[in-house]
């Protein structure tokens, strides 16, 4: 904790405002029509000083030092203008922007993003920020320093299966779109980044909204939204080669190209990537491949763009985690796992001889996950006039794959197999190998109509209609006792269908020069058909129909050109996931979750200083959590709890005291509580369940403190060094606030150096060195738990996912 206070002391001290002497006022206009441009961004480069033009195109920049300044002016659909001048007295300027000869890609994503004046909590990462950290780790790790974010990796290296939580919210409650197209799995509602290898190399920019956020397509956002835009039009031909290598034989190779604008109308882009890693955890290798191609027609008033990208992964399973007994070298605890039948003899022997931090319970050579996902997007944008534009998209996602596992002993009847009689002995169970398959299709269309009168009103009307068809089935590929089986026995088959339709309307109204009002309402209807259980516990076809109304409203107050305030209220509703439905009966089906979200924030940006402060309150009704209760079909299903909440403060500070130094930090302090719920514990002595009442406990995986920071210093013109820090407070593995079922807090530091040179033949040659966990912190970032009574006492069995100690990556990038 002392590290945290030391970090905060630096940033709070550096965030005190200063006052300079020069003021710049001006007006941004269309160069041809000389009409004002509202919402243009006027920025002093190398500082946090930014202004936005009002309805008359006017802007004000204050507190500028008397020195040479570089001004950058940008506006969607117009060419970015750069201007250098010497600030020695108050100045007034008129800035004329020329319209681009082709339509800009940015208009494709207006419908799903929060605008500059929308009263929502968000951060943005551009392609430069992403590329600087893209050394092979997943994009979740590149986002790791954003406020309230906690990342984790099953293999312990940031490669393969990774995840991100924002404000303690798990991936099934974080809405993800790419070019406005939903990415979350329609049934589980999670996003599997392992199916999108090296997506960081194709991202142009990404907005991270916290809270319910703005209306968008796909699954309901119950804690955050990630809106990703792939590569935009680059008018100049170019090519890039990136390679990096490091610890655990991690190797990343990427090649990319762009044709630039051909005949002032056509552009084509492509990218090919391969990432391999042995992983930190035993046998937890990753073999990841991906490609991206796009071709587009860019007219003066329209864009038609085809985007195709695909990811193929083969990873060795590291999903089980390391038992606490193995982690702590607790021989008695390891013996208990074996004696109680939690692990087999071969697993027990493997545990005794393994490294305590890299233990993997799986030893079967092909205990792998194998999956490929292909994305097809046809995007169209049309500018009807200077006030109206239309966006539409058709999409199709094809996913197919399986995970294979060796089962040491299972009942033959579970697979529809007959008992085997050998020498008058009846054999009822057998070792076997099985594959669990998923073959799914997801397709649909999205649309939006945008209106902007460039004075008082900005409005969007849009929606989407999407369908999902998922075939779930299991195959037995080998059994020791064949019984009545045959090659590739299909022992279960379940096809699920889901239709998801939504419409929405958003309005931003400029009430005065300083005050803008925001309103947003979304109506969403869902039909889901699946194989589940009836009241007789028979597996039968069922369906669920849900209708949601999600309203949002807010206000933004620009106090002056450096200070602003916003507040908003939003309602979100979310359907249960596949597991909640499939493992339940209609009379005991879980209810949808409801969230009411209040956000209020303050922003100060002036000169070399920046400070953002945000308060949030998230009140849940019927949140679904695990309680240990066994439902009517014998499954540990999630159940609705009546009341729970998240409340917190998020602070971001930044300072650029000199041109070569950039210091940034953020901290999130929160209380995440469940008012009342009942925990159920198995009693192995009586084969019953024991209930325990809990009050005002912490929500699992929701640390009260999350902080991050970065110090970047340019030692030379082309040589930069960055020190990045992340602190995550204690996390509870379940919802009981039991200190014996928790992940300890951790403080991790990374070091990065980059050196670039330019030549006549190669535009840029860049060398990079990334040292992760440079102080060799021993920590775990994720886990799970279950507890039971045995022999008259309560036993907690905790499992953790240890992360790698000090490790490195070196990289070389060539840009042509």
What is the compact description of this entry?
This protein has 816 residues and is mainly β. It is built from 7 helices and 44 strands. Strand 33 (636-658) and strand 34 (661-683) form a beta hairpin.
- The proportion of residues forming helix, as a percent range, comes to under 10%
Give the beta-strand count: 44
User: Based on the structure, what is the oligomeric state of the protein chains?
Assistant: single chain
**Can you tell me the CATH topology of the largest domain?**
Maltoporin, Chain A
Tell me about this structure.
The protein has 816 residues and is mainly beta. The chain folds into three domains: 1-100, Immunoglobulin-like (Sandwich); 245-321 and 360-815, TonB-dependent receptor, beta-barrel domain (Maltoporin, Chain A); 322-359, no CATH class. Helix content is 6%, strand content 58%. It contains seven helices and 44 strands. The strands form seven sheets. It has a 22-stranded antiparallel barrel. Strand 21 and strand 22 form a beta hairpin.
Per-chain topology:
Layout: H1 2-14, E1 22-30, E2 41-44, E3 50-52, E4 58-64, E5 68-74, E6 81-86, E7 91-97, E8 121-126, H2 127-133, H3 139-142, E9 149-153, E10 162-166, E11 174-178, E12 181-182, E13 203-210, E14 224-230, E15 238-246, E16 250-258, E17 266-277, E18 286-298, E19 302-316, E20 322-323, H4 324-327, H5 331-339, H6 345-353, E21 368-383, E22 388-411, E23 420-422, E24 425-427, E25 429-452, E26 457-479, E27 489-510, E28 515-533, E29 539-558, E30 563-574, H7 578-582, E31 593-606, E32 609-630, E33 636-658, E34 661-683, E35 688-698, E36 705-714, E37 719-728, E38 731-732, E39 742-743, E40 746-757, E41 764-772, E42 780-790, E43 793-802, E44 807-815
Parallel strand pairs: 1-7, 11-14, 34-42
Antiparallel strand pairs: 1-4, 2-3, 2-5, 5-6, 8-13, 9-10, 11-12, 13-14, 15-16, 15-44, 16-17, 17-18, 18-19, 19-21, 20-43, 21-22, 22-25, 23-24, 25-26, 26-27, 27-28, 28-29, 29-30, 30-31, 31-32, 32-33, 33-34, 34-35, 34-36, 36-37, 37-40, 38-39, 40-41, 41-44, 42-43
Helix pairs in contact: 5-6
């Amino acid at each position: 904790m002392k590290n945290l206070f030391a970090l905060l002391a630096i940033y709070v001290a550096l965030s005190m405002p200063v006052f300079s002497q020069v003021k710049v006022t001006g007006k941004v206009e269309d160069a041809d029509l000389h009409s004002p441009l509202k919402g243009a961004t006027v920025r002093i480069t190398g500082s946090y000083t930014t202004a936005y033009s009002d309805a008359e195109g006017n802007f004000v920049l204050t507190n500028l030092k008397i020195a040479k300044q570089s001004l950058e002016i940008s506006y969607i659909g117009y060419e970015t203008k750069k201007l250098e001048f010497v600030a020695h007295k108050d100045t007034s300027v008129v800035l004329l922007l020329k319209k681009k000869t082709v339509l800009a890609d940015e208009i494709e994503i207006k419908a799903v993003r929060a605008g500059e004046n929308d009263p929502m909590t968000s951060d943005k990462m551009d392609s430069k920020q992403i590329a600087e950290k893209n050394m092979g780790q997943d994009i979740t790790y590149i986002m790791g320093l954003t406020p309230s974010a906690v990342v984790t990796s099953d293999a312990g290296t940031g490669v393969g299966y990774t995840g991100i939580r924002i404000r303690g919210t798990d991936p099934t409650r974080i809405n993800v779109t790419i070019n406005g197209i939903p990415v979350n799995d329609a049934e589980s509602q999670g996003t599997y980044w392992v199916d999108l290898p090296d997506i960081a190399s194709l991202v142009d920019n990404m907005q991270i909204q916290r809270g319910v956020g703005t209306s968008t397509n796909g699954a309901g956002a119950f804690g955050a939204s990630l809106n990703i835009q792939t590569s935009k039009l680059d008018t100049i031909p170019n090519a890039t080669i990136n390679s990096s290598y490091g610890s655990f034989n991690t190797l990343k190779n990427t090649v990319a190209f762009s044709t630039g604008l051909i005949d002032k109308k056509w552009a084509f882009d492509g990218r090919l990537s391969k990432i391999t890693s042995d992983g930190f955890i035993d046998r937890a290798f990753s073999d990841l491949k991906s490609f991206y191609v796009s071709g587009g027609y860019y007219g003066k008033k329209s864009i038609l763009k085809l985007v195709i990208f695909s990811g193929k992964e083969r990873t060795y399973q590291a999903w089980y985690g390391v038992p606490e007994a193995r982690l702590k070298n607790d021989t008695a605890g390891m013996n208990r796992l074996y004696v109680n039948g939690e692990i087999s003899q071969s697993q027990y022997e493997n545990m005794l001889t393994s490294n305590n931090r890299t233990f993997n319970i799986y030893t079967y050579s092909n205990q792998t996950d194998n999956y490929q996902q292909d994305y097809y997007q046809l995007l169209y944008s049309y500018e009807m006039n200077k006030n109206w534009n239309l966006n539409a998209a058709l999409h199709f996602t094809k996913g197919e794959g399986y995970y294979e596992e060796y089962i040491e002993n299972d009942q033959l009847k579970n697979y529809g197999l007959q008992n085997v009689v050998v020498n008058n002995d009846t054999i009822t169970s057998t070792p076997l190998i099985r594959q669990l398959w998923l073959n799914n299709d997801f397709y649909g269309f999205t649309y939006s109509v945008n209106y902007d009168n460039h004075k008082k009103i900005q409005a969007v009307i849009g929606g989407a209609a999407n369908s999902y068809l998922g075939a779930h089935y299991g195959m037995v590929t080998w059994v020791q006792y064949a019984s009545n089986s045959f090659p590739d026995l299909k022992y279960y088959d379940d096809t699920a269908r889901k239709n998801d339709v939504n419409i929405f309307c958003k309005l931003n109204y400029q009430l005065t020069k300083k005050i803008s009002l925001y309103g947003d309402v979304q109506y969403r209807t869902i039909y889901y058909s699946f194989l589940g259980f009836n009241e007789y516990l028979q597996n039968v076809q069922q369906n669920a129909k849900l209708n949601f109304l999600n309203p949002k409203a807010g206000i933004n107050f620009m106090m002056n050109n450096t200070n602003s305030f916003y507040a908003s209220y939003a309602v979100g509703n979310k359907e249960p996931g596949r597991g909640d439905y499939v493992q339940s009966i209609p009379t005991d089906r879980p209810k949808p979750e409801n969230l009411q979200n209040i956000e209020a924030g303050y922003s100060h940006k002036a000169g070399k200083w920046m400070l953002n402060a945000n308060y949030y309150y998230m009140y849940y009704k019927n949140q679904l959590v695990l309680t240990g209760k066994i439902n009517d079909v014998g499954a540990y299903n999630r159940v609705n709890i009546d009341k729970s909440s998240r409340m917190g403060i998020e602070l971001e500070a930044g300072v650029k005291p000199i041109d070569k130094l950039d210091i940034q930090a953020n901290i999130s302090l929160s209380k995440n509580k469940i008012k009342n719920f009942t925990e159920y514990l198995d009693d192995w002595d009586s084969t019953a369940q024991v209930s325990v009442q809990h009050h005002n406990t912490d929500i699992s995986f929701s640390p009260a403190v999350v902080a991050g920071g970065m110090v970047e210093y340019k030692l030379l013109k082309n040589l930069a060094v960055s020190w990045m820090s992340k602190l995550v407070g204690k996390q509870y593995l379940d919802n009981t606030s039991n200190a014996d079922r928790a992940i300890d807090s951790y403080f991790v530091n990374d070091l990065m150096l980059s050196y670039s040179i330019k030549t006549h033949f190669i535009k840029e040659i860049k060398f990079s060195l990334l040292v992760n966990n440079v102080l060799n912190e021993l920590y775990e970032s994720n886990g799970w738990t279950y507890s039971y009574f045995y022999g008259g006492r309560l036993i907690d069995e905790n499992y953790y996912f240890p992360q790698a100690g000090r490790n490195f990556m070196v990289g070389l990038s060539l840009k042509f």
